[in-house]
Structures are given as C-alpha cells and as structure tokens.
C-alpha cells in the first residue's frame, strides 16, 4: 500500500517544475491525479511557461507509475476554468481528497511593471484561492489542502530602499504572504470538519522559474547580462546550509507527508523547506 493509496489529488501548475514533481510523487504512492496548467505564456513574465506538451508528459509520467491522470489546460486566475477542470476529474475519479495549489509565477522585472504586479497577485494568490475554493464543496473528512508559498513570504521586507522599482518582484512576495494568512484562517475553519490545510515555504528551487533571465538579474543587479553561473554565485545568500538551491523532489516529499495520514493531526502549519534560510533572518521565537 502506498502512503496515499486510493486517493485523488488535484494539482495546479502540474505541467513541469514543482507541480509535475508533486503529481508524480503522489502517483508513486498510489494517488490518481487531476493535473492542471495554463500551458501558455503570460506577457509580463520574462521567461517561458509550460506548454501543452509538458502537461501531456506529466500525464505519461503519472501513468508509468500505474495510476491514472486527467489533464486540463486552465488558467488559475479564472475560477470557472478551474471548476470545469476539476469536474472533468470528478467525472473520471468520483472524488477529490488532496488539493495541491502549486501554480505560481515570478514577475521580477516584469513589463509593464504594474501589470506584472497584477498578474503575480492574480496567479499566485487569487489562483491559490480559486483552486482551493472550487474543491471545497467536494472535500470530505480526512482531506488535505496544501498550498505553496515561498521563503520570500517570511523575509523581512520592512526596509524599502527603492520603493516602486520592481512591482512584479514585490507582487511575488506579497502574494506569498497573503497565501500564508489565508491558509492559516482557512485551516481554523476546516479543523472542526477534520479537513487539514497547510502551507509549504520553499527556498530557491531548481526549476525554470529560478533558472531564468529575470531571476538572474534579480540576484546579480551588478551585472548587465548575468548568466546562470553568475547568479549561482549569489543563490546561496538565501540559505543557511551551503547550497544554492533545493530540488523539486525535496518539496514533493513534504507534500506527500502532508497529503498522507502520517500527518493526520498536522494543520495550520507553515512548513519551511528552506535549507535554513529562515534562521538567517530571525532570532528564536515561539
């Protein structure tokens, strides 16, 4: 028996990166997958997003584990599209037990700047709400909701040395903080119903979002055209452990634990998978 044997997981942002990794890891442990992704670029985002072919490949990886996959191209900013995608999965599987609200974008250096802010907030925060709330009517006792925020949500941003210089970048941090608050309050409301809701805060993760030109420029503003090698010299500033980034699988293992009955009494958790990054920013407090 797998750790989520017989369960059905609804995963957004599933075409590549962390979302694909989560979908496959859950399938390896017995879950069927409803995999959703926008599968097209967003104009303000300075790196390419996933493609329809990427989503098809995720489904193939899931099916190689012996589990089933239902896929849908849907924009998390549109609750109607997500509801339709989930209903397709419900028609196939009859239920949903796990929600993994993973879809997200990084609008660092996005143009035009205020639209980059809007797209980041709408995808990361509103998109997380949409994914969860279209699933809420279908979740029963024992269900688990997992949202991906970011170590950026936990960073001290009280100093604003250059306000307004990068709305897209600030929108990323703001959206992830709002996810944290939303999930805390949602977990409180769901606890009496024996439904759990938790947040994972990854540090730098080795995905196309991190390995992108806008992110390289964010980490190396001293260079006109920084390369991956240039940026990786600075990636380590985020972590206390001596690594530039973690891998998607490191987060997927946390997702699996929170989705499984092993964590049946864990809810309202802000779980850091950050290689000790938080330790660099704050003194100990309860």
TrEMBL record:
InterPro entries: NAD(P)-bd_dom_sf (IPR036291), SDR_fam (IPR002347), SDR_subfam_1 (IPR023985). The keyword Nucleus does not apply. It holds the Pfam family adh_short_C2. CDD domains: SDR_c. Signal peptide: none annotated. It comes from the Bacteria. GO terms for molecular function: oxidoreductase activity. The keyword NAD applies. Keywords: NAD, Oxidoreductase. NCBIfam families: PRK12826.1-3 (NF009467), SDR_subfam_1 (TIGR03971). Belongs to the short-chain dehydrogenases/reductases (SDR) family. This is 3-ketoacyl-ACP reductase. It comes from Mycolicibacterium grossiae.
């Amino acid at each position: 028996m797998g750790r989520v044997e017989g369960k059905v997981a609804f995963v957004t942002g599933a075409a590549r990166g962390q979302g694909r990794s989560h979908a496959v890891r859950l399938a390896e442990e017995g879950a069927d997958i409803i995999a959703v992704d926008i599968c097209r670029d967003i104009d303000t985002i300075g790196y390419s997003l996933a493609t329809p072919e990427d989503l098809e490949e995720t489904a193939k990886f899931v099916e190689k584990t012996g589990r089933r996959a239902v896929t849908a191209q849907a924009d998390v900013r549109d609750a109607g599209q997500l509801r339709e995608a989930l209903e397709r999965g419900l028609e196939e599987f009859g239920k949903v037990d796990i929600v993994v609200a993973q879809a997200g974008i990084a609008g660092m250096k996005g143009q035009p700047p205020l639209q980059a802010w809007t797209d980041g907030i709408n995808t990361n925060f509103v998109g997380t709400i949409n994914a969860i709330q279209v699933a809420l009517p279908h979740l029963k006792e024992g269900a688990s909701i997992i949202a991906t925020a970011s170590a950026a949500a936990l960073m001290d941003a009280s100093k604003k040395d250059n306000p307004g210089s990068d709305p897209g970048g600030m929108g990323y941090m703001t959206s992830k903080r709002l996810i944290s608050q939303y999930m805390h309050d949602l977990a409180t409301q769901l606890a009496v119903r024996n439904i759990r809701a938790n947040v994972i805060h990854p540090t730098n993760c080795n995905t196309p979002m991190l390995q992108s030109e806008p992110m390289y420029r964010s980490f190396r503003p001293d260079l006109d055209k920084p390369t991956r090698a240039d940026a990786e010299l600075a990636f380590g500033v985020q972590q206390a452990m001596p690594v530039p980034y973690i891998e998607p699988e490191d987060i997927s293992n946390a997702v699996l634990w929170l989705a499984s009955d092993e964590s049946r009494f864990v809810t309202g958790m802000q779980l850091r998978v950050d290689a000790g990054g938080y330790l660099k920013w704050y003194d100990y407090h309860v």
